[in-house]
Amino acid sequence: MRLILSICLCAISSLSAETAPRFRTDADGPVDPKKDKAGRDNKDKHADDTPQWYEPVEGKFPPAGSAHAISGELTMVDHLERRFYLRVDRNDSQERGVWDLPVDGLMLPYGSIWYHGEPAALQDIPLGTHLHGLFYLKASDDTSPPPPGPHNRVTPEIGFKRCLQLEDDFTFHARQKQLWNIESVDLELNKLTATLQENGKATGEPKQFDLLSSSRVYQGNGFVDLKALEKGQSVLFNLTWATLYGPGRITDLWIDAPSRQQASSRQLERHRNHLRERGLAGWIDAVDDESQIVTITFFGGVDPKLFEELTAINTDPMGWPLSKPEDNPGAPKGTIAVARESLMTYDPVNDRKGGNILDIKKIPVEPGSSGVQIKVKCDMLLEGFRPRRIVRFYPATWKVIALPREEQYEGRE
Fold first, then answer.
1. Number of domains in the chain
2. Alpha-carbon torsion (164, 167, 169, 171), positive or negative
3. Domain residues for 101?
4. Do 163 and 35 fall into the same domain?
5. What is the DSSP letter of 408?
6. Which of 9, 137, 326, 334 could be bridged to 395 by S-S, CB 3.0 to 4.6 A?
7. CA nearest 323: which of 296, 352, 346, 348?
8. Contact indicator for 102, 94 with CB cutoff of 8 Å
9. Tens-place pLDDT, residues 279-329
10. Single pTM value for the model
11. Would the pLDDT of 364 be above 60?
12. H/E run at residue 237
């Protein structure tokens, strides 16, 4: 009996090991291009070696914990294509010759951006802001040259291009319920010493940050002078020039909870306005050609309140871009516009089709996914309404207006 039980346990253990996803993580150590070229093309791999980095699969959300963390400063932005340069922070794993070199980041379609604790667009974040990112290796067919660097040098992180998440210091620490406790302030030397705390307990040693005469200090509903900074205050701040000459320079600092709440509230409204004019992004899971029903899963990094607006009713037929009446004018409805992987649409005012929302349901939340899925009965299926294609969805109560010309891809095909 014991032998049978032992055999069963071994079989279960072996099966679990085989079915468990195997991919490299940051816990396996820093990236070293001399050893594995950022996880690619190593001819000396053995079965017991560290597994390769996870490769994103089209039409599937990645598993939790599979991305590689890179932090650095935002030095270039192409917000239309959701591309950016991030000057990588210095760390002990780098040789001096590859300090301060950039990675060329490209937001995945389901990649999310956060600023001041709330969802954001890339254009919301000022250049020079220190950011924390989660990245995957670039696509195997990506032959674009690396960002220019002195003597053709590149950062060890150069292979990581596709970005799952990007967030500022404010968001990074607020998400983990962390605050900086001010230990001392020296306005003559423009230095601030603070210790990071989580649940009232220090998580490391004190660090000394640089203050600037232009550093913005927020308290309550307004600005205050640098003289308002005092020992014992629990604060959050954003940085620039991180790791160049120490931990970094403080650009913005929030002294109290009301000031932090105001910053978050302001960013949240900016996010809501942005999406109400551009639509909710997602990809098509399935298309029933006979019934003309399209199933869409929305991407994450979206204020949940916007999904509540899917159920709102608009019975006004004026301007409704459908070729035939919807089945139930009193039911929730909306329209779908085809989008590119950068989430840019073509001509959303005219190139939309849709109808009644037949179903809104919750599905398991995964990295990149909102956990919200809908089925839409369309009056007509467009060529771009295919599984795994990216789309934008406009609830019927959202007024669809022409975007600035540079945000429309129509005519560039």
1. 3
2. negative
3. 25-173
4. yes
5. B
6. 334
7. 352
8. no
9. 999 999 999 999 999 999 999 999 999 999 999 988 775 556 677 777 788
10. 0.91
11. yes
12. strand 234-240
